[in-house]
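Protocol step 4 of 5: obtain the predicted structure for the target chain.
Materials: sequence only (see below). No template structures provided, no constraints applied. The aim of this step is simply to have a reference model before the mutagenesis design in step 5. Sequence pasted as it appears in the construct record:
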Amino acid sequence: MPKDLNAQLQQGLASLNLQLGQAQQSQLLAFIALLVKWNRVYNLTAVRDAREMLTRHILDSLSILPYLQGERIIDVGAGAGLPGIPLAIAKPEYRFVLLDSNRKKTRFMQQAKTELHLDNAEVVCSRAEDYRPDDPFDSVISRALASLSQIVSWSAHLCRDNAVILAMKGTFPDAEFADLSKSFEIKAVHKLNYWGLDADRYLVEIRAANS
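Step 4 output (C-alpha cells):
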C-alpha cells in the first residue's frame, strides 16, 4: 500500500468536512487493501491503483453521507461494496443491506464484512426485484447501476413510506427524467465534490410523488 495513502485519506475526509475516528480510518484503508488483493483474481473493479480507489471509490461513496435518510439503508447492486461498505464504516449506528446478484462480488463483500468487523452490515445475494425484506428501507442507494426508471422499477417495493431513492450518476441525467414513473419524482439533483475528483459526479434524489 502507498505510504502516503493515509495522508491522502486525511485530505479527502477534510474536503468532505467528515470527522472519522482512527479505527474507522484504519477500516477504510484496510478495505482498500482488500480491494487491491481480491481485484488481482476476481476483477471486482477496473480501478487498480490504491490511490485511485481512495478517490474514485472511497471518497465518492462517502460524499453522499449528508443525503442519507433514516437508519435502515440498502445498497442495490452493491458490487464490490460501493458505496455501502464505506458508508457502513462511517455510520456504525445505521443498518445496511448490501445487495447484489453476483456471487463472486457477494463473496468478497462477506469477506470484507468479516475482516472489517462490520456488524451493522448484511450481505444478500439476490436481484433487487426478487428481494423481499422483512422490513422496508428508509434509503435505497445505487451507484452507476442503471437508468433512473430501471432503478425505481427494481427498488420501489423496498421503500417504506417517505423513503428516498439516491442514485449516483457520472453525468447529469436530464435525458432520463422523462422516463421516470409518474408515481415518483425528482426532488433534487446534488453535484458532488471532494478532494481528488476529476470528473462530474451527481446524486439524484427521488421520492414517491405523494411524499
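Step 4 remarks: The helical segments are 5-15, 22-42, 50-62, 84-90, 103-115, 148-155, 174-177. The first helix runs from residue 5 to 15.
Proceed to step 5.
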